[in-house]
Amino acid sequence: MDQSPTADPQPDSLCLLRTSAIGDVTHVVPLVRTLQARWPQTRLTWLVGKLEHRLVGDIEGIDFIIFDKRAGRAGYRAVREQLAGRRFDALLHMQVALRSNLLSLAVKAPLRIGYDRARSKDLHGLFINCRIKARRGDHVLDALGSFLEPLGLEQTRVRWDIPIPSAAREFAARHVRGNAPLLVVSPVSSHRLRNWAPERYAAVMDHAALGLGWQVILCGGPSAFEREFGDAILAHMKSSPLDLIGKDTLKELLALLERADLVLAPDSGPMHMANAVGTPVLGLHAASNPARSGPYSDRQWCVDRYDAAAHKYRKKPADALPWGTKLEHRGVMDLIGVDDVVERLEAFDAARGSLPRVAPPRQQKLAHPAGARSVVPERPRPV
To answer: pLDDT grade, residue 6 (50/70/90)?
Structure first.
């Protein structure tokens, strides 16, 4: 079924289905904010992953239903039991994986909005009856925002305002040293072929600390791989960054990213969390296209070697690839050199004094055309 708006201008209830991952769940928040602003009386239910719920689960006005994918059949059964007897005016089915398609069977709704055919997979079309418009060039956030269009809405303003508890901000404040500019490094993506070499991270972090006088904090999750990766970075370093790998919660990480002047990361959840709190990101892109999945608000500090990767691994320019093609090949991130990243870091350091600071609140930005080069957003130093 082609896209068509619902007959009811303000539905009584909507169900959102996007369980993972951290970055994508972050991208759903502006859609939630648009719905809350335009239809404050509409009851919203969000099927979300167990980990992801720790980041967004305290957003007011949402009935969260947690899906624990590691629980197997018990996870599906728990969702079905919570949804038993409930009906919604529409389901926004914003995930194409087979696991999510099966999960959507628990949601009873006459209008089931899903992806266009080009972005569908795992039999997604069997679980929906309305598709969003196919567009080339959309950022992932804009693609998710387009799920509002069959409902007769348009996402014209992008706002996150993910709550940060005072205890999380206190955690961040305890780890920030004086007035030195702060570089937070979150080096690991769950897609391991998107990860840059540890010795290259070490060289950039040393330059920030020893050459530019920045405070450097190394972050990461509690997994054994992230600890091992962090240790490999530290083994190559001359300076001594603050090592917080495995020592913070998602909310504490969000608060720390809010305090940072700049975040260095590959295409990963923390990249998008940093963008959501208004912090510029020095993103590392070769395996993925930053115009599609880079930091939404400001990509001018990123290193983009996606086109070089397309030439090397597909023998054609990036523009000739299907939109959203991932080039996750062994060694692809080696196309990004230390000098490339140092250049962006030094450019940011030189511009830092002229970047405007305004009083809170923040976390509010206008959407921009896909691929547009945005300016540095106004962002205050949290106090």
So the answer is: low
Domain span at 107: 13-159
Asked if 151 and 197 sit in the same domain, the reply is: no
Task: Name the residue with tokens 């648009």.
Answer: 34
Residues 168 and 160: their CA atoms lie apart, in Å, by 17
Number of other residues whose CB lies within 10 A of the CB of residue 347: 13
DSSP character string of 34-84: HHHHH-TTSEEEEEEEHHHHHHHTT-TTEEEEEE-GGGTHHHHHHHHHHHT
Give the mean pLDDT of 174-197. Answer: 96
Compute the average pLDDT of residues 217-226. Answer: 97
Q: How many C-beta atoms lie closer than 10 Å to residue 189's C-beta?
A: 24
CATH number at residue 107: 3.40.50.2000
Report the C-alpha gap between 243 and 142 in whole angstroms.
35
Other CB atoms within 10 Å distance of the CB of residue 30: 24
**Strand bridging mode 303-304 / 111-114:** unpaired
267 shares its domain with 187: yes
Q: Say yes or no to pLDDT of 200 above 60.
A: yes
Q: Which residue has the higher pLDDT, 304 or 380?
A: 304
Residue 54 near residue 25, CB atoms below 8 Å: no
Confidence of residue 354 (pLDDT cuts 50, 70, 90): confident
Task: Tell whether 311 is covered by a domain.
Answer: yes
